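Researcher: Structure for this, please.
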Amino acid sequence: MTAIGRMVRRGLGAIAAALAVLLAGAAAAADAPLVAAAADLRFALSEIAERFRRDTGAAVRLVFGSSGNFARQIRQGAPFAVFLSADEAYVFDLARDGFTEDEGTLYGIGRIVLTVPRGSPLALDGTLDDLARAIRDGRLRRFAIADPEHAPYGKRAEEALRSKGIWEAIRPFLVYGENVAQAAQFATSGNAQGGIVAYALALSPQLESLAGHALIPAAWHAPLRQRMVRLRGAGPVADRFYGYLQEEPARAIFRRYGFVLPGEPVTE
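Model: Predicted structure, token format:
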């Protein structure tokens, strides 16, 4: 074989090896189990999944959205392996009807906050006193929450506004996000003057750079008991990730994003 032939052969071998690595990576990504997660987990769960990959070498694919929509999709045959819901009622309903391995486990209790972007005429006031005044004096134009029909954080926002006695008065000014992450986007991007969103989203560096937040009293709404569960036929990687979510590295991340962990007290 000539020198040129050997060079061509080595070059083709290197290309083949690179393609093999790329194809193996693509196959691994395709085999990674799908995890359906409530939208409030966008930042916390992304961190946990990356740490899981570093610690174990295994990967999962995350999909974020509203818990109600995911529950409907699971019933229609969506190929999710693990479901992290913002409302445990969806998990219990799926378990009762045979879609899950068991009734799952509580992974945290969420909180809601008033979020106000920089330059908004609204005051950062978790008691919502200024929000009530803004409705009366004409300062309020648009206010964002998640859709209460299928997003647990939207339902809790409605409950808090009802507890404050301003639900009917604020309804003409509401803009609804498909999920709480979209509501947070509306509330912090200039599409609204503020909103009620998940504490876990408000604590992210991305949102903290755009808006302030104030906790809304937990007594004003039903608790956001957030439960996760493995779906039927979840598989070994999904089982491993499900277990990892209950270990201290994951719990520490959940805690950092404002979740009250099982066994810990809810404080105002």
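Researcher: Any notable elements?
Model: The CA atoms of residues 219 and 268 lie 9 Å apart. The chain has twelve helices and ten strands.
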